TrEMBL record, chain A:
SUPFAM superfamilies: Winged helix' DNA-binding domain. This is DNA-binding transcriptional regulator YhcF, GntR family. Residues 9-77 form the HTH gntR-type domain. One of its GO terms (molecular function) is DNA-binding transcription factor activity. Keywords: DNA-binding, Transcription, Transcription regulation. SMART domains: HTH_GNTR (SM00345). It comes from the Bacteria. The keyword Cytoplasm does not apply. Signal peptide: none annotated. The keyword Nuclease does not apply.
TrEMBL record, chain B:
One of its GO terms (molecular function) is ATP hydrolysis activity. Residues 3-228 form the ABC transporter domain. Gene3D superfamilies: P-loop containing nucleotide triphosphate hydrolases (3.40.50.300). This is ABC-2 type transport system ATP-binding protein. It comes from the Bacteria. Keywords: ATP-binding, Nucleotide-binding. PANTHER family: ABC TRANSPORTER, ATP-BINDING PROTEIN (PTHR43158:SF5), SKFA PEPTIDE EXPORT ATP-BINDING PROTEIN SKFE (PTHR43158). Pfam families: ABC_tran (PF00005). CDD domains: ABC_DR_subfamily_A.
Length: 121, 284
């Protein structure tokens, strides 16, 4: 968990990622309750409307579901949905910059694959 | 309460403090009102609170003008950076006067804050330190529970711990009951996470009114070699740029993904920095 949020990225995204990380790391399991909008707002000293936006997006993504009057809970297949989503991001966030840097260093694809394999051992 | 600002101008002798400003604040949100010294923020807040008249144009609050209008004045509490209270009054007299004035006054919250900030009810205002006078201003502003509560640099002389307490209680109160809070401050990095919407004034004009998270998403710093960056920003809205040793960083408004797709290094821009770059550009 992060102690403070960054002011240079949307706060609702950081709240969203916080919950997603907790689910990915099995800290919050399917069927368990996640902190409320006000709990996030108080903890991070952020605007509650902003915290709500992050949580609502996770409801739209079917990562969370609402139980009226009780709170927000993690859905059964939340982790599966997140893995699929993160695989797509993995390509953009890791493979593309990796290739770009490799090109700068004149590392060709063959050598790059060799390096990835070396890491597996 | 709805705030409708229409063609608002204020002239002090030779100086145009506000130049034909128009905008609306429709919902009870926490608004950050930012800008350099002399941008017209305080003048705007004083007109909004019905304390002074505009030279031209008007502010309507739920359709009514605030000047000399008790019904509207009871719904607005403006806490300024100093001289909020008569010097000869005691702290307890000030609290009493505000309690009579504001129908929404929360006596319990006032007591809690007086205790929190160690305010002596029997002390006269003129004997209070700057920080203590600010603490009283904050107490009055929060406890007024006015549907429109305005803080104009309310914490001169307050230490970091006391400011933190102010932010915490402000947030608690806002969570419990939504109201329009306008917070004008130069300590932007301390409070920017509280803002839902940001307004930036520059030389008497409104240069920006936007959701805080939209700004965080739509302003970015892009870095790379000068050639790469210059090629990339040629058709972009550039706020500011700087170069060193063949490398260049440009601050741009627009979609971050464009720059990421170009393989350039991309970073977000904190709201404080955005305010500085925006107001420098306009002033230059």
């Amino acid at each position: 968990m992060k102690n403070a949020l960054d002011d240079n990225r949307p706060i609702f995204l950081q709240i969203k990622e916080h919950i997603e990380d907790s689910i990915m790391n099995d800290v919050i399991k399917p069927g368990e309750r996640v902190p409320s909008t006000n709990e996030f707002a108080t903890h991070y000293k952020i605007n509650p409307a902003t915290a709500a936006k992050g949580i609502n997006e996770l409801v739209a993504d079917e990562i969370l579901f609402k139980r009226r009057g009780v709170g927000m809970f993690v859905t059964e297949n939340a982790k599966g949905i997140l893995i699929e989503k993160r695989k797509k991001l993995f390509y953009e966030n890791f493979i593309q910059p990796l290739k770009a840097e490799a090109t700068k260093l004149q590392i060709d694809s063959e050598e790059l694959i060799e390096m990835v394999k070396r890491e597996e051992k | 309460m709805k705030i409708d600002v229409r063609d608002l101008s204020k002239k002090y002798k030779e100086v145009d403090a506000l130049k034909n400003i128009s905008f609306q604040l429709e919902e009870p949100k926490i608004y950050g009102l930012l800008g350099r010294n002399g941008a017209g923020k305080t003048t705007f807040m004083e007109i909004l609170a019905g304390q002074i008249l505009a030279t031209k144009g008007q502010i309507y609050i739920d359709g009514e003008k605030p000047f000399d209008n008790q019904k509207i004045n009871e719904s607005i509490c403006l806490v300024k950076e100093g001289n909020n209270f008569k010097k000869d009054l005691k702290v307890k007299n000030v609290l009493q006067i505000f309690q009579y004035f504001y129908p929404t006054w929360d006596e319990e919250l006032a007591k809690e804050l007086v205790e929190e900030y160690n305010l002596n009810p029997n002390a006269r205002i003129k004997t209070l330190s700057k920080g203590m006078e600010s603490a009283l201003g904050i107490t009055v502003g929060l406890a007024s529970k006015a549907p429109i509560t305005i803080f104009d640099e309310p914490y001169i002389g307050l230490d970091a711990a006391a400011r933190k307490k102010f932010y915490e209680i402000l947030l608690e109160e806002y969570e419990a009951e939504k109201r329009t809070i306008i917070l004008s401050t130069h300590l932007i990095d301390e409070v920017s996470l509280l803002f839902e919407e940001v307004l930036i004034f520059q030389e008497g004009e409104l240069v920006l009114k936007e959701e805080a998270d939209f700004l965080r998403n739509n302003t970015y710093a892009v870095s790379g070699t000068t050639d790469e960056v210059e090629a990339f920003i040629s058709d972009k809205d550039v706020i500011e740029s700087k170069q060193l040793a063949g490398m260049m960083t440009a601050y741009v408004s627009g979609d971050k993904q464009d720059a990421v797709a170009h393989g350039l290094q991309v970073e977000g821009v904190p709201i404080q920095d955005l305010m500085i770059y925006l107001t420098e550009r306009k002033g230059a």
